[in-house]
Every structure is written in structure tokens, then in C-alpha cells.
Amino acid sequence: MIHYKTREEIELMRESAQIVSKTLGALAAEVKPGVTPLELDAIAETCIRDHGAIPGFLGLYDFPNTLCMSLNQQVVHGIPNKTPLQEGDIISIDCGALKNDFYGDHAYTFEVGEVAPEVRELLKVTKECLDLGIAQVKKGNRIGDVSFAIQQHAEKHGYGVVRELVGHGLGKKMHEGPEVPNFGKRGRGPVIKEGLVIAIEPMINLGTKEVRQLSDGWTIITGDNKPSAHFEHDVAVVDGKPEVLSTFSYIEEALKKTSAI
Asked: Are the CB atoms for 28 and 254 separated by under 8 Å?
């Protein structure tokens, strides 16, 4: 079921999305060698609650934490633990917040210290995939146009595009229709209409597109144990065009300050 949103509802969703953005921004300065995912998880929960929201993932489908934190070959849904981050790691931090009955949900893959050039390139291209997908969120286009743009750019660079996990509609539920795959054909899938709000989230692997789930029942890893990147934005159709409700600006400002120290 696709629930189209009014302008008023989109503004409420923007507030939830911005809380997630600010939370990821607060984490950006803390992602460094020696810090543990559980320490970052605690910071995130405090930040979300301080903004008058509820952590969107905590308890959702019985997930045990505020953040999904996926390290290196982990694609998504990693559970925060006490193992310190190490120089050269990458970590995808996926965060959700619930306020005014609407969810915000987006993600960013962070570098921990200096990472290998081929990994940095993977992150760059995955972020480009997100931007190219967002550009297709226009009234009259189809979801397949978004999917095709992401897949084409990733595969042009020789990367694997995960099939089993997809983006999704967003609203009063964390996961609504339509599904937004990161692969597909132009002109296929549901028509994009005014008021649609979706979470677009390319999950792109350095190697194979194949993935598998760990015995914890949550963590998804690449089939060849090569790194995976994940970036996500919440996007609404307003006046027939894409409007990004979340932002990476808080992250980018924090990283700029950190690199200047």
C-alpha cells in the first residue's frame, strides 16, 4: 500500500528526517579508531531523545539497538557491539527517528581514519548512485527509473548491486510501499506521484552482489567478504520534483572540522 502525503505531513516528516541528520552529524566527529559501536549507539539515543523523538529502530521487529551499524563487509543491519573501531575500517550507520507519528530514516558510510583508495572510491560511487537515483524521483517517472539509474552507475564501475535488500516507502510506518530496488529497468514499477515519500538506499559491494545473513538473525554480509557501502536519503515528491528531506550537511560540517584539527 502506497500512502501519499500532504504538504503538512511532508513537513512533519522533514522534522523527523532532520533529527536523524543531526544525530548522524553528532556521530561524525566521534567515529574514529578506538571508539566502540555501542558507545556511538548511546550517543545517538541521547541525541534523538533530546530532540523530542523516539529511536525508530529500537525494538522495531525486536531489533535491540538505536543504530544499525555495519562494518566493512557487513552490508546492513549490523548490531552494535563492544569491539573498538580500527584504522582503515568503514562503518555504515543507519538511523531512524519517530516524531509526530512520522519516521525519518537515513544512513551514511563513514571512513575510520585512512581507508584504502579502492574503498574510498566505492564510497564515492555509492553516494553518486544515491544522487542519480534521487534525480529520477519526478512525477510521471516510475520506480524502475530510480532503480535503473543506481544499477547502471554502480555496475559501470564493476561493483555488485545487492538484490535482496531494497529501499522503501516511508511514513507512519518505517516500511511502506513501494519497494525501491537498487536494480531494475526504466519504465517499470509504480508511477511516481505527487506526495510520494521514499527512502532511497543504494547498497553497493566492492565485489560480488551476493550476500548472506549471519547467525544473529540480523547482520547481512557480502558473499566474498569484500567491503560494502550504504547511503540513504528520505525523498518526497513536491511540485512534481524530488525534495530531499534529510541532509548530509551536518556530517560534512563535522568531518570538515575534524580534518582541520
From this structure: yes
203-205 and 160-161 beta bridge pairing: antiparallel
71 Cβ contact list (under 8 Å, min separation 6): 37, 78, 85, 89, 90, 91, 92
Tell me the CA end-to-end span of the chain in Å, nearest whole number.
Answer: 49
CB atoms within 10 A of CB 238: 17
Please tell me whether the overall predicted TM-score, pTM, comes out greater than 0.85 for this model. Answer: yes
147: CB partners within 8 A, 6+ apart: 133, 180, 181, 182, 183, 184, 185, 188, 189
Q: Where are the beta strands (DSSP E) in 84-224?
A: 90-99, 102-111, 160-161, 167-169, 176-180, 197-200, 203-205, 211-213, 220-222
As beta bridge partners, residue 246 has none
Provide the grid cell at 48. Answer: 534523538
- The residues facing 253 across adjacent strands are none
CA 69 to chain CA mean position, Å: 11
Contacts of 17 (CB under 8 A, 6+ apart): 97, 104, 105, 106, 234, 245, 246
Q: Is 138 in contact with 240 (CB distance < 8 Å)?
A: yes
Cα atoms found within 13 Å of the Cα of residue 99, Cβ hemisphere only: 21
Answer for the pair 203, 94: CB distance below 8 angstroms, yes or no: no
Helices (H), the chain: 7-28, 37-50, 117-135, 143-156, 249-260
Per-residue pLDDT of 63-102, as tens digits, reads 999 999 999 999 999 999 999 999 999 999 999 999 999 9
Angle at 184 between CA 178 and CA 187, to 5 degrees: 80
Distance CA 92, CA 86 (A): 14
